[in-house]
Amino acid sequence: MKTLIQFISEKQADFPFATGEFTRLLNDIGIAAKLVNREVNKAGLADINGYFGQQNVQGEDQKKLDVFANDCFLTAMRHGGMVCAVASEENDELYTYDNAFSQKGKYVVAMDPLDGSSNIEVNVPIGTIFSIYRRKSESGPGTVEDLLQPGNRQIAAGYIIYGSSTMLVYTTGHGVNGFTLDPSVGLFLLSHPEMTIPEGGNIYSINEANYIYFHEGVKQFIKFCQQDDPATLRPYTTRYIGSLVSDFHRNLIRGGIYIYPGTLKNPNGKLRLLYECNPIAFLAEQAGGKASTGYERILDIQPESLHQRVPFFVGTRHMVEKAEEFMRKNA
Ligand code: P6P
Hints:
Elements: H1 4-11, H2 21-40, E1 51-55, E2 61-63, H3 64-80, E3 83-88, E4 95-96, H4 100-103, E5 107-115, E6 126-134, H5 144-147, E7 156-162, E8 166-171, E9 176-182, E10 187-192, E11 203-205, H6 216-225, E12 237-238, H7 244-254, E13 257-260, H8 273-286, E14 290-292, E15 312-315, H9 317-329
Bound molecules: 6-O-phosphono-alpha-D-fructofuranose (P6P).
């Protein structure tokens, strides 16, 4: 089986001006992922499971693994020298490197180092999500403007899911490929080439506890999912893990839609545009699916702030389009 680094090297030709730096960056992300995987897999044993005693910018208690994962990826990208700035869920401000080597880096990264971390102590799969852009500024420390680019400017995006097996799934705009970590040799091996979201799909993922605060269009879509599907004579199935990477990964393989909509209480929903919605949307579109706010394409949104939230509908194209139809009818 082909290793991640062999695959990336072969695909380097996809980048007309590739100088090997991008290949090195993806490889560095893979190395950090292995370090995080090692700690995630023994979280219950080590004292790492407890809260770190701080709160991240979202006001969420930071678990030690959140902090460990954030440090792992920041360090990996520092040593590589390809990245001049990182927007992370764990850091309020933009993280810029304080050495001239990194400040020459051509790329900037937006990441959620450990999404769904509230699931760690109940052993539910969690994930790292990353999004990579070319910097717009000429040199020196990266700037917020380097990160506030629409998702259609991403040059790569992906996630690592720390589950029953650990997988790295990414795209550079030439399809989606999945690599499974073989812990016996410490290598990511190509296990899911050219991933596509199945055309069919009868799974919907949404936290229905928020139902009374949903937009009427969302309520109508849920009711639609609960009717017998003429094709199967059965209603859709609901699956909600509470971990975006896990819910999206299942829908990528089996088909389905994940929705975190705006509500009366939180009109922009919960998920962050830069390091959750944009990278997942890039993967979804590259796999033949769709991603929108219920009204507009996620990848066309011009970001206004690093931790901006947007409503998120993502997955099998016809399911997203059906949900959008209900949103338009009930606007
Ligand atoms: P709720 C995890 O905190 C996360 O950002 C996503 O991974 C997940 O899908 C969502 O929030 C769960 O949110 O409000 O349903 O608990």
